[in-house]
Amino acid sequence: MTQAKGQAFGIQLMAFGVILLPAMDAAAKVMGDSIAAATIVLARFGFQSLFLLPFVWRDLYLPRGQELRLHLWRALGICVSTFCFFAAIQVMPQVDALAIFFTMPLLVTLLAPWMLGETIGWRRLSAVAVGMIGALIIIQPGQSSFGLVTVLPLIAALGFAFYLLFTRQLARTSSTQQGVAVFTMQFYSGVFGSLMIVLAIVLMQPFQHPAFEITWPEPWQWRQLILVGVLASIGHVVVTKAFQYADASVLAGFQYLELLSAAVLGWWLFGDLPTLNTWMGSAILVGSGLYIFHREKQAH
């Protein structure tokens, strides 16, 4: 495959992935508050593991030492992120939650010096500050009808930022210098994520919080839960594979098509129309994120 064809194929994979991932969120949102958020998260990771098992079982091994610790930290990050995001979209429009979630590249920039030893200049720090202003425009502190729920996508973004940073650390460990297969990495995320959410459900039972309530799903909920797991598996694998075919600099802008996909699905399925604040804040966040990526590319 020529470089040009590889780049084009990578873009196609990214476009397909950013359609699937909001569809996964929509499949979870359809269930509303009829089922606990923790149950949806457990299904998301559990069915992801089952779906990927046939692709990885020949190459499975038990991670040890530093590699195991990084897999566990990755799983914790994605578990917290998924739970908070699913809990948020049970209450607020999907596109609003996703727009706030896109503070994630800004948080990665802020955390990278601490976790990876990278240095950032004043330009990227300024872009982070501008991006956070965009997030505040969407959240509307003190005025939003969703109250403290708007904080959940921010926590989800922080969890996913840690997930990405631990993924980078995992790639640097001596035992994974040859690279961990995409399917294998996603499989471990599903297995460890499932164990963590089960532990959280057990620990939260004395508090009787509705988000961790244990109920047996109805048949239509089983269908949605399976759909969430399958879409999560395909979506994350496709997006990861896209970066193997096309340069990150080419794909950076296409990642934000996820906002448009979420807006269309939210309007079609739930009648949610993004507000002017959402569009304005999203534009600022997207601009800040792309500028940060541009500066990172120049730095490297």
From TrEMBL:
It comes from Thiothrix eikelboomii. Residues 9-139, 153-288 form the EamA domain. This is S-adenosylmethionine uptake transporter. InterPro entries: EamA_dom, EmrE-like. The keyword Transmembrane helix applies. GO terms for cellular component: membrane. Coiled coil: none annotated. Keywords: Membrane, Transmembrane, Transmembrane helix.
